[in-house]
Amino acid sequence: MKGNSRESRFGKREKRKKTNIILNSLIALVIILIIVVSAKIFFGGNNDQELTANEETASESKQNENNKEDKGNEIEQNKDKEEKQADKESEEEEKESEENAEEENQEDKEQVVTEGGSGPDVEKTIENPAWKPVGTSQTGEHTAVYDQNHVDWQEMLSAISYATGIEQGNMTVWFLGNNGPNSSVGTISTKDQSEKYRVYIDWVDGEGWKPSRVEVLNEIN
């Protein structure tokens, strides 16, 4: 009886030992699985975040490159427009200059120069059928007005400047007055008196004052 009882206790002990081993193994396996899953979640999440961050950075970089490219294209287009505009303005200025030169050449060809003139103070007389009226802002019936503050006076000076080539800023007016119906005469010089002229101008209705004759003077009387 004692032998059987001892064997029974030994068997129970062995069974309990095996059970503990199995349980410990299962617990260890569960712990390992938990560690593996946790590691996967942790490191995998970081990888996902890093991948997302990299994708966002790449997207922003690409967007910046596209913006730079668009801005560069816009600058290039504006530059092309400015160059085309400059070329157009240059062509217009060149064309205008050529037209003015052609007109001046035509005037030079048509002008008639004779020695002397209406008095002993006249060196030579210039007449040019190519001269044109200088234009006017006046309307209605015209009467010459010899008042320096009146528009008519300014338009007469414009006609004299046109005929002589002397700008009004460099002009001294010695006399400007009546020379008959719709006609005036002015004596002017440069401020240093190196050039002296007597200019005859006629009024053309609706078109303004037109030079008719220029006398180059050798002195101012």
What does this structure look like?
- With 221 residues, this protein is an alpha+beta fold.
- It folds into two domains: 1-110; 112-217, no CATH class.
- The chain contains two helices and six strands; from the N terminus they run H-E-E-H-E-E-E-E.
- It has helices spanning 2-110, 151-164; strands spanning 112-115, 122-127, 171-178, 183-190, 196-204, 208-217.
- A six-stranded antiparallel beta sheet has the order 1-2-6-5-4-3, with helices on one face.
- The longest helix has 109 residues, at 2-110.
- The model has no long low-confidence stretch (mean pLDDT 84).
Quick overview:
By secondary structure, this protein is of the alpha+beta class. It contains two helices and six strands, in the order αββαββββ. Helix content is 56%, strand content 20%.
Strand order across the largest sheet: 1-2-6-5-4-3
Computed over alpha carbons, the radius of gyration is 53 Å
Number of helical segments with 4 or more residues: 2
Uncertain segments are none
Report the order of strands and helices: HEEHEEEE
